């Protein structure tokens, strides 16, 4: 049976660590949202919830739900959708945050395999998550339904070509990762156009260079700082005005 919770339901992939966890923390600590923490195992989800509780003893524990999903596995994504549908009947906001670098902590041998590993999560995983959960977004009567895709400034073609940028491709090649985020940008643009008439707003956000496990914790921003633009993309302003746009705090001058 659907849950009686009257808080907007937000599902975050990769919610047990890095930007996903930091985003979940901001939303839950606000007291305004019910957060579904999508993780690769139930143990990781429970661990994340316990950490949220330890960091904020006043957190609304009824507004935290762990969800098992491996976004590289279509059957797992379908099973996760069925779980959310059975428990809540709908979804208000989807944040596709889970991503992999492919170089840290391990780079697989063989060029094709490098691309496959990264695209499986960063591109195919996001595309299938979105398509699978669309019926639950369509079932929602929430006034501002949103899909937020977390990209990177490294996915901007203008940045890769900009000799005056620290992230010029000579200084920072990462072709597999950069191309996966460029592909994600295009998926976001197409979905934004196709879903606009349904009132489902698809928004792209680049959190900036954030210290997470994705980059061996070498970023300039803390996860909490990097999560701020993600939360804004998911909850602030008017989704209708934000849809189909890149929301970022840096590198916008190079286009996307």
UniProtKB/TrEMBL annotation:
GO terms for cellular component: cytoplasm. InterPro entries: Fungal_SecMetab_SDRs, NAD(P)-bd_dom_sf, SDR_fam. Pfam families: adh_short. Gene3D superfamilies: NAD(P)-binding Rossmann-like Domain. One of its GO terms (molecular function) is oxidoreductase activity. It comes from the Eukaryota. GO terms for biological process: secondary metabolic process. Belongs to the short-chain dehydrogenases/reductases (SDR) family. This is Uncharacterized protein. It comes from Xylaria hypoxylon.
């Amino acid at each position: 049976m659907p849950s009686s919770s009257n808080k907007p339901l937000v599902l975050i992939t990769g919610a047990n660590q890095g930007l996903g966890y930091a985003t979940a923390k901001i939303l839950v600590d606000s007291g305004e949202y019910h957060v579904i923490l999508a993780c690769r195992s139930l143990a990781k989800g429970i661990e994340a919830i316990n950490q949220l509780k330890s960091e904020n003893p006043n957190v609304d524990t009824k507004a935290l739900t762990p969800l098992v999903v491996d976004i590289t596995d279509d059957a797992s994504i379908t099973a996760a959708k069925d779980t959310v549908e059975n428990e809540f009947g709908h979804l208000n906001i989807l944040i596709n945050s889970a991503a992999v670098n492919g170089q840290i902590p391990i780079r697989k041998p063989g060029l094709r395999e490098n691309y496959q590993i990264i695209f499986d999560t960063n591109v195919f995983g996001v595309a299938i998550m979105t398509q699978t959960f669309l019926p639950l977004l369509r079932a929602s009567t929430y006034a501002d339904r949103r899909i937020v895709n977390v990209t990177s400034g490294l996915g901007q073609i203008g940045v890769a070509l900009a000799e005056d940028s620290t992230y010029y491709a000579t200084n920072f090649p990462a072709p597999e990762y950069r191309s996966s985020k460029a592909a994600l940008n295009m998926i976001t643009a197409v979905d934004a156009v196709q879903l606009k008439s349904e009132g489902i707003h698809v928004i792209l956000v680049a959190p900036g260079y954030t210290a997470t496990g994705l980059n061996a914790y070498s970023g300039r921003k803390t996860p909490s700082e990097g999560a701020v633009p993600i939360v804004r993309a998911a909850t602030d302003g008017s989704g209708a005005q934000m849809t189909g746009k890149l929301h970022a705090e840096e590198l916008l001058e190079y286009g996307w």
